[in-house]
Amino acid sequence: MTSNEEARPFGTMTTAAPEDTQGDDMKSRQEQEEKLILTAWQSMSSALQQHSLCKDSRPPGPTQSFLAKQRQSTQARRVLSPQLQPR
C-alpha cells in the first residue's frame, strides 16, 4: 500500500470507473434533493404570502394611528368592565 492509498478513507478505496459513476449518481441525487427542497420552500412561501394577504384584507377605510388603536382598546375594556370607569 502506498502512502497515497493510506491517506484515503476506508470507503473510497475502489477502482476509478465505479467511483465516477457513484459520484455522478450521488451528485445528481443531491441536485434533485436541492431542487425538491427549493420547490417546497417556494410553495410554502407562496402559501404563507397568500394567507397573509387574505388575513390582511380589510374593507377600505381610513387607516388608524397607533394612538387611535390604543384609545379604541381602552374604550372597549371600559365597556367590558364598568369598575374601571371614573366615578
Short description:
The protein has 87 residues and is mostly helical. Helix content is 70%, strand content 0%.
Alpha-beta classification: mainly alpha
Element order: H for helix, E for strand:
HHH
Over the alpha carbons, how many angstroms does the gyration radius reach?
32 Å
Helix content: over 70%
User: What percent strand?
Assistant: under 5%
- Overall mean pLDDT score? 76
Bulk shape = rod-shaped
The residue ranges in which pLDDT falls below 50 over 5 or more consecutive positions are none
- Would you report the number of β strands? 0
Main pleated-sheet profile: none
Overview features:
87 residues, mainly alpha, 3 helices
Notes on the protein architecture:
There is one protein chain. The radius of gyration is 32 Å and the shape is rod-shaped. It has three helices and no strands. The termini are far apart. The chain is mainly alpha-helical. Helix content is 70%, strand content 0%.
